[in-house]
Model the fold of this input.
Amino acid sequence: MSAARAHLALPHGEVPLPAFLPDATYGVVRALDASDVGDCRVSAVMMNVFHLMQRPGSTIIKRFGGLHRLFGWERPIITDSGGFQAYSLIRQNPKLGSLTDDGLIFRPEGSTRKINLSPEKSVQLQIRYGADVVICLDDCTHVQESIEAQRESVRRTIKWAKRCKQEYLRWLDAEESLNSPRRLIFAVIQGGGQLELRRQCAEELLAIGFDGFGFGGWPLDAKGNLLTEVIAYTRELVPREFPMHALGVGHPRHIVECFRLGYDLFDSAMPTRDARHGRLFVFEPEEPLNPSTGNWFSYLYIQDERNIRSDKPLSSTC
Amino acid sequence: MSAARAHLALPHGEVPLPAFLPDATYGVVRALDASDVGDCRVSAVMMNVFHLMQRPGSTIIKRFGGLHRLFGWERPIITDSGGFQAYSLIRQNPKLGSLTDDGLIFRPEGSTRKINLSPEKSVQLQIRYGADVVICLDDCTHVQESIEAQRESVRRTIKWAKRCKQEYLRWLDAEESLNSPRRLIFAVIQGGGQLELRRQCAEELLAIGFDGFGFGGWPLDAKGNLLTEVIAYTRELVPREFPMHALGVGHPRHIVECFRLGYDLFDSAMPTRDARHGRLFVFEPEEPLNPSTGNWFSYLYIQDERNIRSDKPLSSTC
Done:
């Protein structure tokens, strides 16, 4: 199976599909400047509104005219909404904040500050920051949580998606519509491992109407295996003409697997973080891209004696 | 007073004088790649043979064809000999090694390795690494050490300089002499605060014959003040046509002061290290370059709230 679309047309350019987006959580891919990232032919990066609103903060981002100008990055930016952070920070540690139907309240550890993020505010910030793709605030879960928790997450995700869409439309009217293509809005499909809830979530979100969809929730089971069945099923719920983003999927084997299932976009901090710690992924160009074997790539530990001594490119595909 | 020469002609290009060389101790200016350093219009960098022989080590440096190719730096490199490291590591902590007339022996902490560095080996490595300017191994002191220690340091520095010069000449014969300009060799003048010892050292080194000279020994007194009198006196011992390097001098005020005294070359890790920690030096372009006031530059703390919020260049001279 190949991607239904060849590219995603966005205000800051076209993103050829499929695309892996490095996470530039706080606006930068650590240890690299924007020109290095561009030189690596990265077509778009993923930033995170929940982190950016705290550091450097909205005042500074807006003062500099948005994320593109502040970070010197001229290609598209997709901003995540903060839903995953609500999950990973607040759901895992309730004393850091709370989730209600109105959004999330976060109290950073060791700080008296309180951060409110409603569905409207998340969309508003993403737009004012200049994101090319806005993602609706969602209520994220782990597949192991109870069916009640999954049901509640789907209910809230749909409710928030409606409010996000309204906010997006309000801004769309205000924005110069002369600029073509317009910025897009994606919604996130939740439901954990419950296929029926995934279906319900997808149908409701399709009815509200979005430009694309994300597979939401932690994409791995407790053993670290990709939730292939649920991911495949969820893709089939959404017509092929809509691009789908496998949120947080970044392991090469998982990317190939999700691509085979019809996903177009991927993001993760893992490949660049691993690289900073000396572990690189390299293609084995002779091997077919078979998701079940994974023989088509290998790990390269750059600090190994033989690699330190080598003056060859990392891979014959470089 | 201005520099007697307009530039230093070296195998990898001309260095306009005066020049400040950032310390790329282990081959890189930390947090920057060679193209960033080049973009800052740095004309040459200072590396350190004592550190490089340990990491990445001579085998790798030679395998990659020398420092220029290994680190992707195409402009001149001056390599320090290891004399200052012998001072700062061994003299301050004798259990890490010892100094004899044959050179230094260094036992890195937590390692069973033993590193020998003789005058000949220091020159040999600097040449094989591809340095544009080789610096003789010297026996460095602090100005507060006893006159006996200073006398011993001068005796050994002269003795080593002779051996370094011989080794340099041996390699010069072996090298293709078609390449013009040739790599240069500098010797270092020691003597602490003893003017008579400085004079003796300078005269002996001039008699051996070098292309340039360094002011050796820690250049500050116990209070952190520049040893202006000794630095001035030492410069006067050396005819103006020889370039002089104020080794380890990097504070803007000290650079201007030493330049006024006739020094041409400066190096320090301090400006780039301070920058990594958020303290920058900026010119105040309206103020004259008066060494005694220092009003012509100021500190800028990049993490200050007003600087974080500013979208202006750091200085009107940028």
